[in-house]
Amino acid sequence: MYYLFFCSTSAADPVIWKIQTNKPYASSLFKIEQQMLRNIELDSEGALKLDLKGKNGFVNNRSVYNALRTGEIDAMLMTPSYWANADPVFAIMGDLVAAWDNPQQYSRWLNSANGIRYLDKAYARVGLKLLGYSIATPESLLSRKPIPNVNALHGLTIRTPPGMISDFFKLLGARVKNISAGKVLSSLEQKRIDVADFSDLSVNNQMGAYRIVKHTNYPGFHSMPLYDFVVRLQSWNKLSNGQKEIVLKAVQQWQLKAYTVSQEALLKAEKEVLSQGVTLHTWSKGELKKARQQARIVWDKYSTKSAEAKALVDELKIWLINEGNLEEL
Where do the domains of the chain lie, and which CATH numbers do they carry? Predict the structure, then answer.
């Protein structure tokens, strides 16, 4: 059916989407996104052309949300936490600090409990459509000193990005510095900081961080970003039903592939960092609950920013208590 449809319209000009991602060109996640878009072009027999640009491609990364809303681009593969200033729901859904044990747990809430509706509605309010998402592997801290428990972070100087995660580590008693990502390694090497929040075990290892520091927490818990594929509703509505089905099929394949590749990279990195003499600190369930009691203070702060944010945080806390991640309210 799709073959006949596209043959009959092959003479028409193709639909061209400008798409920006925040992934570096050399990263495996960028390559998986590229493959998703190639699949769409192939399955549509060229009726859909998707122009993907990496970090700061069409516009500065922090300008992508506005560029999408105004029609400068057609779609984005980013993380909603970037748009926290536009809607607190984006911060909560994009990377709820210290909430989750693993991607599977977050995915259960998004799907089985229909938690994804909060993000879907937040985008719909500004004329955007959420097509799909993938969940990153938990991030691991880079540390020059042992970090076996919550108390070990007290008094240490830590690099974090501004926002929810920065607020969280302050509550744990750490001294927070907002240092750009490009200066993380040099700051650790020069002992300007003791700890750095950067990425997961695999990415940390790829950038050579474990040649400098010999302590990391694994599995991580404090950060596990959600990446999403969002399109301008006007661009989406110009597609035929057949074209929409092709896009959504490719998005499902992307979600599965991104998770599989990330997990494989993590297992490989675990072996490699151990061979470099790195100590992996695995926190007990009790220690994680201590950390999450502090994280809940940060969540509550964000819940006061809108009625939608309050409903979201209230629902999440009940769900996480039932999961055993939090103590009773």
Answer: 2-136+224-272 (3.40.190.170), 142-222+280-323 (3.40.190.170)
